[in-house]
């Protein structure tokens, strides 16, 4: 499989102070990498570096040509983002902002891509609904569709199931696994032991150091992996059972999570204040 992302002896930090050091990892096409670590271990800093938002203090991060334009990003959601008043279609289309460049409107191909990704994630019937009125699981599908508009090569998901009920979590995990099986590379930051079940590779980082990088099987056979399972589940020999995905829910609407759309956070790798203006203007002209 082709290598898409490589970190070689990477040190990351802020203002000359390292947060994590000596990162060595390779992500190849079709991989499903789960990044584990305690709070403060540098996971958020690594996310920013992989997105190209901060430089490495030492070492190098190499991106293959096919992802040089950016990584599709599903960010952690904030309270402010939970109440963003835009339609599902507007939010999904905003994933095309980087492709549109300085054009004031989305073109026919970008609009078609948004419709295709809404259909792919089963949210076409929600296209005219207000994002802030959706359930948490529905909102995450919207943001996934948006990330797929930015790039269909590699997605970076930051704690995607946080705040969802168990059935919605299982449904989202299965959806992400289906996307991975279709050939999309996944990088997921998670605290959830269930995420390990779906991963092909694990990166476990601790305070200022890399503790493990390798296959899921090797991780679960390692002392670190067994310790992680004991801490999270009370047993070292198996992962917890993942609940079956729920039956297709009736398309009723409730409130939850919100769009990093306006902040431009899920644009491929970079968002700007100008992106907010363009997003709003396109929403007015292209609804």
Please provide a brief summary of the model.
By secondary structure, the protein is an alpha/beta fold. 34% of the residues lie in helices and 22% in strands.
Question: In CATH, what is the homologous superfamily?
Answer: P-loop containing nucleotide triphosphate hydrolases
Please identify the structural class as seen in this structure: alpha/beta
Main sheet characteristics: 6 strands, mixed
Uncertain ranges: 248-287
**Portion in helices:** 25-40%
Distance between the termini: 40 Å
Number of domains: 1
CATH topology category name: Rossmann fold
Strand content: 15-25%
Q: Looking at the chains present, what oligomeric state does this protein adopt? A: single chain
Q: Count the strands?
A: 9
Overall, the morphology is globular
SSE pattern: EEEHEEHHHHEHEHEEHHH
Number of helices: 10
> CATH class, please?
Alpha Beta
Instruction: Describe the strand arrangement of the main beta sheet, using strand numbers.
Output: 5-6-7-3-8-9
Radius of gyration: 19 Å
Q: Could you tell me the mean pLDDT?
A: 82
CATH second-level architecture = 3-Layer(aba) Sandwich
Question: What's the arrangement of secondary structure elements?
Answer:
Blueprint: E1 3-14, E2 17-28, E3 32-37, H1 43-50, E4 58-63, E5 72-74, H2 88-93, H3 97-100, H4 108-120, H5 136-150, E6 154-158, H6 166-181, E7 185-189, H7 194-198, E8 201-206, E9 209-215, H8 216-221, H9 223-233, H10 273-286
Parallel strand pairs: 3-7, 3-8, 5-6, 6-7
Antiparallel strand pairs: 1-2, 1-4, 8-9
Helix pairs in contact: 4-5, 5-6
């Amino acid at each position: 499989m082709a290598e898409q992302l490589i970190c070689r002896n990477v040190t990351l930090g802020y203002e000359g102070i390292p947060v994590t050091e000596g990162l060595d990892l390779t992500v190849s096409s079709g991989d499903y990498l789960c990044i584990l670590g305690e709070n403060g271990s540098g996971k958020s800093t690594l996310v920013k570096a992989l997105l190209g938002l901060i430089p490495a203090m030492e070492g190098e991060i190499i991106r293959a040509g096919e992802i040089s334009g950016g990584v599709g990003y599903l960010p952690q959601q904030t309270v402010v983002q939970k109440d963003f008043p835009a339609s599902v279609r507007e939010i999904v289309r905003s994933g095309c902002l980087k492709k549109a460049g300085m054009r004031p409107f989305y073109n026919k191909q970008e609009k078609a891509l948004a419709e295709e990704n809404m259909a792919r994630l089963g949210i076409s019937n929600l296209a005219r609904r207000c994002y802030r009125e959706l359930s948490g699981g529905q909102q995450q599908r919207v943001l996934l569709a948006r990330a797929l508009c930015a790039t269909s090569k590699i997605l970076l998901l930051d704690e995607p199931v946080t705040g969802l009920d168990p059935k919605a979590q299982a449904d989202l995990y299965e959806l992400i696994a289906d996307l991975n099986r279709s050939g999309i590379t996944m990088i997921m930051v998670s605290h959830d032991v269930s995420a390990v079940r779906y991963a092909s590779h694990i990166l476990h980082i601790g305070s200022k150091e890399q503790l493990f990088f390798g296959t899921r099987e090797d991780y679960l056979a390692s002392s670190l992996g067994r310790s992680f399972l004991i801490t999270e589940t009370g047993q070292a020999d198996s992962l917890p059972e993942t609940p079956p995905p729920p039956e297709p829910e009736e398309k009723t609407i409730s409130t939850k999570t919100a769009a990093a759309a306006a902040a431009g956070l899920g644009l491929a790798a970079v968002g700007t204040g100008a992106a907010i203006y363009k997003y709003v203007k396109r929403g007015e002209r292209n609804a």
